[in-house]
Write a structure and sequence with these properties.
By secondary structure, this protein is mainly β. It folds into two domains: 115 residues, Jelly Rolls (Sandwich), CATH 2.60.120; 260 residues, no CATH class. Helix content is 0%, strand content 54%. It contains no helices and 43 strands. The strands form eleven sheets. Strands 1, 3, 4, 38, 41 and 43 form a six-stranded antiparallel beta sheet that branches. A five-stranded antiparallel beta sheet has the order 2-37-42-39-40, with no helix packed on it. A four-stranded antiparallel beta sheet has the order 5-34-33-32, with no helix packed on it. The radius of gyration is 26 Å and the shape is globular. It starts with a strand and ends with a strand.
Amino acid sequence: MKTKKQLTIDTFSTESKLKPKLCYNISLNDEISGSSGVTVAKFPTSLTDMSEIELDTEDMDFDKIKGVAYFKQYFKDVNSSRHRILLYCDDEKIYINQLFYGLSEVIWLYNLEFDSAPVTFAYKKNDTDSIILASENKMVVWHTNYLPYTITDVPIITSMCMNEGVLFCTVKEPAFKVWYATTLDAESVGEINESCNYISLEDNLGDAEKILTFDESVYVFREYGISKINYVKKDISVSQVYLSNSRIYADTVNICGNVIVFMTKDGLYTFNGVKVSKLDIDLTDLISQNNDNACSASLDTRYFLALKMDFNDGKAVLCESQDYVNNALLVIDISDLTYQIIRGVDIGSLLAVKTEAFEKILLTFNSGHDDKLGQIVNNSVCFSDNLPKYLLTEPLNENIGIKQYTKLTVDSSANVSFKLIFDDDTKTFTTDKAGISEFNFKVSSRQISLEISSSAEAIDIKRIILDYYEYGD
């Protein structure tokens, strides 16, 4: 005796019957749709005119943009702010564009040159907006209404933060020292005086690699843990708050919402100022064991992580067809743990920018489009290329008995391929119209998985229905 049944999947969140085994360039929610994508960065022409322009870099001497920073300066005399985008390029120069003035040109900033991409930190001192640019050969400090000035005799700064009017810095050598300047004078770093000194972190947590202010406290992310710096009226102490079993990738550390997110070889973690918790997203098998060049940014509750992933499917997607450093962008909303994997982009750095007129994630690239400043967009593209979309599910059926499958019904956009994978057979169907499509067949099998693929820019899948007969006594 056999009974006719249906398997209906009409929601595609993490709690649905559809369990992804491998998924990239696809967004899973109430519907299956295309993921976010990347394209050339565009900016509003003014604070009130949202028509957008690209930065014009066609006639510049550089071939590659290697870093990007954002800096807002307030000018009291005219009661207005100026928004700056700074680009560090492979000709070792810093270029600047002033946003909201309708200008697409970038110009060389005060003849400044650096031998490496500078670490940047924007802050206020005496009600004046300032920015520090610290590279391996110099430090430049720029206060509003003054020309930038250069200091060469300082340690190589790797990260900076400010708390309670004190500037804290991690340095490359010796990396167990954390410097602090009570007068925010970055040029004092490396020189012990009344307003500047250092904290020694010589313990089993390794080098100090990233420092940040979180929940009114200062935390130092080390190679293998987290330390907290307590500074009260010039009294300073350090406490260990977390010991990691594997190395923390420093450039993945980012404040996101009400937690700090970071990655180790064992996966992704959050830190709330008290305890560390592993994110309940099982991507361990996909994350490469070599992610020294991973980097991140955060915008509200969304965490953006550029990294290397091992998909192990024998395919070469976009940037993977040539030499690459990173090949994926992971976007996680930590409020509900929904996520996307954007595969095929080799991102070198990310920067979150929020202004009165827009908020966006800016990108530079290690390879492919590396002469452009990019941004994340809602369209599932990589510049002029559509991102190839792919989803392979775990087995859809819960029981292991033999079933006879007879029909696939989908409510989707056109140009989507659905491949049914049985014990020893496969059936592939492609939609040629938007709406409901029905495909009849007849296969008996114990297991069945589903593969979805498309090269279209946008896809939309609302419902998947499998008709089958179940055998009984």
